Amino acid sequence: SGVSAGIIGYVENIYISESYNKGIVGVNDLALASSSRDWYYAGGLVGHTGNDNTLTIVNSYNVGDVNAGDKTGGGLVGYLYSGIQMTAINSYNAGKITASIGKFKHGGILGESYSQNDVVIDNSYYLKGDSCRYGGIVFDNSELADGTLYKKLHEYAKDEIFGTVWKQNVGEDA
Fold first, then answer.
1. In the chain, what percentage of residues exceed pLDDT 90?
2. Whole-model pTM above 0.70?
3. Which of 67, 130, 136, 167 has the fewest other C-beta atoms within 10 Å?
């Protein structure tokens, strides 16, 4: 068994705001992750959650690749356990997800959830080529490079959460 993440491997009741990961998450040897583990969760920000808790991610991002072998991997969160309420607001993942599409799951924002009803994704984006059965909005690298994505994030204002923290110098910050 194993967990890896860009910020926190295992969490219970946490609010993550204005945070990011730019490093590679997971294992370098994908064959090792595949063969030696009963389960393995990798997430760009959070790897795995406890049960009956909340996880809120606001104005945060991951641009590091997430490598989970043939197990579960997600751009922001790897796996939500039973009873978790996850909310991702005004955030994005631009990292490449390498994980199974068979028995275990992967996703641009969330890899897998014990219950789909416990997931709320609002104005959060994932890179074209990945999937996210829990919601989210697809973007491509050109929208990151030309400032379109940051403009969409910057203009967010809802329930006392504001996207004004998002700024980009086009041509320099892509």
1. 51
2. yes
3. 167
